[in-house]
Amino acid sequence: MFGFLRQRRRASFLAANPVDDALWQTAIDLPLFIGLTAPERQRLREHAAWFLHTKTITPLHGLELNEQARVILAAQAVLPIMNLDFDAYDDWSEVVVYPGQFLSRDRYTDHIGLVHEYEQHLAGQARPEGPVLLSWLDVSQSPWLDGWNVVIHEFAHKLDMRNGDANGRPPLHAGMDASEWKTAFSQAYNQLVRLAEYNMYSPIDLYAAESPAECFAVFSEYFFETPHALVTHYPRIYEQLKLFYRQDPVKRLPAVRYRPAFEPLDLGPAIPTPVPGGWA
Ligand SMILES: [Zn+2]
């Protein structure tokens, strides 16, 4: 009953508050969205409107995000859940955006109990306890079809975290075969670890060999950006992601890679994040 009322309230909000036509047109013209059908574009637009309504997007360190920038961020963020439930991101509420890559100070405890602190520059980070952190420079360079998309990467982590720590095994839909998911991903992951160990060529970014969680997030980037490469090299992974995201990007995207036709801007040194914490 409450679910039904919530759906009705959401539907009436969406009917009264669509994303502005001109802002939406600029976003949907980006390469990432090539080939979406009219009903898919409409669903994506509604998800984007709901995302903008329910998430706080906080720019930091002098960054200003205008409405167009927010729509471009939201459209990429909701592409993975376009055919899933509106509530797929409802367990967290904030996106923090830095001008460029940011310095993250984190710590971990090793197997004998020693605490290690370390720093790293990041383009994005999905914090288990809440926000997604993003570098705007990297967000703006993401919606190309080159297999690299920090927004899809971090939001894949968020989907993965819906059933606990990010481990490469998000909650699967009814009817999906958990053992097939495990076999497809563990075979690919073990192979990528070997390729990374021996510094060998890989058709997939070897950051995927960092952990099963990164493997799922990196494969998700390829699924939405260069699906032809993914289905050629890792057909079992493609099939599982097709079932999970309920999309078939091979059918809509060209079998080419688009790269940005501009040089990255120099936005100065990376800025430390204010709060240390885990990262994934
Ligand atoms: Zn990651």
Automatic annotation (TrEMBL):
Regions that span the bilayer: none
Lineage top rank: taxon: Bacteria
Gene3D superfamilies (UniProt xref): Collagenase (Catalytic Domain), Glucose-regulated metallo-peptidase M90, N-terminal domain
Any Pfam family: Peptidase_M90
Source organism per UniProt: Silvimonas iriomotensis
Protein name stated in the entry: Zinc-dependent peptidase
